[in-house]
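# step 3/5: fold
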Amino acid sequence: MKTAVFFHAHPDDEALLTAGTMAMLADEGHRVVLVVATAGERGLAELPHGEELGKARMDELRSSAAVLGCARVVQLGYGDSGLAIDGGMADDRADNAFIDVDIEEAAQRLAAILKEETADLVTIYDPSGGYGHPDHVQVYRVGSRAAEIAGTPIVLEATVNRDWLVKGVRLAARFYPALDVRSFERAYSAGETITHRVNVRRHTRAKRTAMAAHATQASGGDGDRTLGAMLRIPAPIYRYVFGTEWFVQRGLPPGTRLRHPFGNP
């Protein structure tokens, strides 16, 4: 049995990016630990920002984690930095906002968990934080440093294949002209940089259930959000669309193509 620690910024990030891999590893008998930096108390939702939303989202996270087979859930207790309308950093963020914390201090706290768990693997995000959320960028910075401190041997950047994503968005733009295809052209990771393509089709039911656990994030703001739209996709199509999860492991030779988080062929 090995131990994999999945480090995410907010509740629901695990369901969107790594849920299938988490369920697969747990099903194989590995220990899966989920760590979130914040409670996501500034996310768009029907509930107002603040403690009430943070509590609701942590309850949702624990429900998601149970479905995925997680052995432990840890919240580091930092404040959700929020997201400005233009996609940058919010000006009214809390004093303990994750984006403002000392990287070394936060990394030491995460490293303590990695050491306690004798983690064989930790997942973070790519340097741009996927789509650029400040807290996601901070996950990359803090997670990278924590792995160095703890000596965790495998560091995987959870991402999306940008080539596949842009093709899908361009197709969707035919029906939804308001979609800004250009905003996706620099998001996540180019296909040529991806080292791990993990087939999680056997675990898409668990992934979909994990997504559904985050009910506060299915709507909010101007209406249905990405997660809500994903949950309306018919099951056979959902299995195809969400049946692969992608990761980048730095330092591997160009052209590396692995099918398992621990590097198994």
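# step 4/5: annotate
The chain has a mean pLDDT of 89.
# step 5/5: archive (pending)
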